[in-house]
Structures are given as structure tokens and as C-alpha cells.
Amino acid sequence: MSLQFSVTRNQNPLPVAKRDEVLAAPVFGQYRTDHQVVCVWEKDKGWVSAEVIPYGPIQMDPAAAVLHYGQEIFEGIKAYRHDDGSIWTFRPYENAKRLQLSARRMALPEVPEELFVESLRQLIAVDGDWVPEPVNEKTLYIRPFEIAAEDFLGVRAAHRAEYRVIASPVGPYFTGGLKPVSIWIALDSARAGKHGTGEAKTGGNYAASLQAQGEGYEQGCSQVMFLDAETGTYIEELGGMNLFFVYKDGHVATPSLDGTILRGITRKSVIQLIQDRGIEIQERKITLDEMRAGINSGDIVEVFACGTAAVITPVGQFKSRVETIGSSDAEPGALTASLREELTGIQYGRVEDRHNWMLRLA
Ligand code: PLP
Ligand code: COI
Predict the structure, then answer these.
(1) Relative to the CA of 205, which ligand 1 atom is closest?
(2) How do residues 175-215 score in pLDDT, each as one tens digit?
């Protein structure tokens, strides 16, 4: 790789005793490590610099394009400490490819795959002590992101962009452990439309989800489920996770990738693990009507959500302003629990990594 990283160490890192306090019980997203990665891209020059610098605010012109036109993309990936102390990550080339897909859609420069993976290595090289012990689902959540950093108010793709990586020690996204969560069905707002940006991991999709998510919180739900924008008929995904349905006859179904939902890496991995067990998995359109009828009749016996942050989380109940489907005190399903056990086992190095998904970072 031609671009060489320079490293400027933080002279005021969080004292070890304080860091240990944070790592004892990290709340999702609340704390950040001592350093960040910043790489700069300029039109006609390409990627011109790569640095590790102390964590701190971004100095930015108020006219920077990202602040006005939302030209921003991001990724979510975790670093796992194994029992022997080594530090690993899960399928980073998949995240690198998805960041490139998002970049193309949002007219940002593509971060080369090797630069993406090297940026993770570089951050872990200085902040490795921030990767928590492998207990209670603790990990270091890494957030690579790219922003349009040119100060120019005309509407066009920016000529200057920054790729940055920050990291945050985390515990479980949902604090209830394996307790099934309730999901709010968004009937009055859509997250993404046909030929829109639904497949890109871009900030605007999340901004568009927050109103419905707020309604859901008021109703005791912890995530929101979106339907297709055109007809309001088909189940798409949650605000930050993909969905799976387990049927009584043994098969599993998940909404197909039609360009409006995120190509979840956990989703792809779960599909593989299901296939490995010889279980039929269908990627297809699933309507809200089918889900309602299936849960009410007992044809659908388990529902779970999955994503990097949420891992695999059972869903007990769906609510909307017109109905309640399922029950909030449902037990987590057997397949849900065992897939979660297998996936986290691979990630923490306790189950054989037969697909070579793990990459050692340190
Ligand atoms: N869908 C959305 C909207 C998400 O934000 C995420 C999380 O990144 C996912 C699905 C799951 O994707 P992954 O498994 O790659 O984390
Ligand atoms: C992730 O899982 O990485 C996400 O970006 C989703 C969000 C709920 C944190």
C-alpha cells in the first residue's frame, strides 16, 4: 500500500484507572478511545494523507458540504478480544466493499479495501487496550465514516473528502440480553424508496428513521420496522438491523435485497450458518399481512433481528397505531438462541471459524 500512516500519540490519554472503569460496563456509544484515524482525499490527487491522531473535535468550515447536503457514509464493525488476549475483527472486507457501494451512491471517493483494513489495524495498534475482556458481549465498536469536507455551497459532489475512524467500547446494544424486544411498525413514514439511498449506509437514512423511532420509544418499543415506500405492504428492515422469520415447518425467510435495504453482513453470515445446518432459507418478499397471519396462527414460531450492534436479538412483539402482534413476554426461540451462540462463538474465537471470517488485528 503506497499511502503510509503517520502516528501522533495522544499525550493526554484517559488514565488507566478511568479506562478500566469504562471498560467494566461500557454503555453503547457513550465513550470513545484516545485516537482517531483521518485520511484525506482530494479531487485529481486521490488519497493524499493517512494519519492516526489524538481523538478530538473536527475543525471544519461552516460551509463544508457535509453540513448542508448530507454527503456522508459510515460503517459499523467490531473488534473482539479472544481468550488468549489477541484482537480480531469480523469480515472486514465485507464492510470495506459496502463502504465502497455507499460511496458510489453518495458520490464520495471509494476507500481502497486495503486502506480500510489498514485503518483498523492502525487504530487498534494504538488503542488496543480499549478492547474489553471477552465477557458480557463486550467489544470495541469501530465506526469508520466518510464526509464531504470541501467548503463550497454549490450543489455538486465535493472535491475534498475525509475518511475517519473512531471507536467506542460497548456492551450489548439492547440491555435486556436475550429478552425479546418489541418493534414499532412505521405506517406513516418510509425510510427509503425505489432508486433512493436505502442500500447505502448514509446518515440521511438514519435521520429519516428517527421520527418513527421516537413514536416507537413512546410505545415501549426499542426499534422501528419500515415497510416498502411504494405500497406500504412489504417488510423491509429495522432502523438498524435486518429481520428473519422462522416457520413451524422449519424453513427460515428474510426480506430479499431489492436495493432499498442494507446488505447486512450479519444477515449474510446468518444465511450461511442456516445453510450450513441444512435448513432451507428463503430470501423473498414478505408482506406485513403474511407476518401477522403467521404469528397469529403459529406458523411463524420465531422472529429475530440481526446486525453488528445488535448481534442476534429475538423479537417478541410488533406494535403499530392500529394493532399489536405477538407477545412481549415471548421466550427467545431455540434457533435464534443457537445461531446467536454460534455467531458470537466464532467472533470470540470459541467456535471453529470454518469460513475464515475472522481477521487478526493485533
Ligand atoms: N440495516 C440497517 C439499517 C443497519 O443500520 C444495520 C447495521 O449496520 C443493519 C441492517 C445490519 O448490518 P450489519 O449486519 O452489516 O451490521
Ligand atoms: C451497526 O450495527 O453497526 C449499526 O450501524 C446500527 C446502529 C443501530 C448502531
Answers:
(1) 3
(2) 877 889 999 999 999 999 999 999 999 999 999 999 999 99
The model's pLDDT over 21-51, given as tens digits with 9 standing for 90+, comes to 999 999 989 999 999 999 999 999 999 999 9
Q: Record the cell numbers describing residue 156, joined without a space.
A: 455538486
Distance 262 CA to ligand 1 centre (A): 6
CATH class of 6-170: alpha beta
User: For ligand 1, is residue 241 a contact (CB within 6 Å)?
Assistant: yes
Residue 148 in contact with residue 123, Cβ under 8 Å? no
Q: Which residues line ligand 2 (CB under 6 A)?
A: 76, 240, 307-309
* Ligand closest in space to the Cα of 77: 2
CATH topology of domain 181-347: D-amino Acid Aminotransferase; Chain A, domain 2 (3.20.10)
CA of 230 to the centre of ligand 2 (A): 25
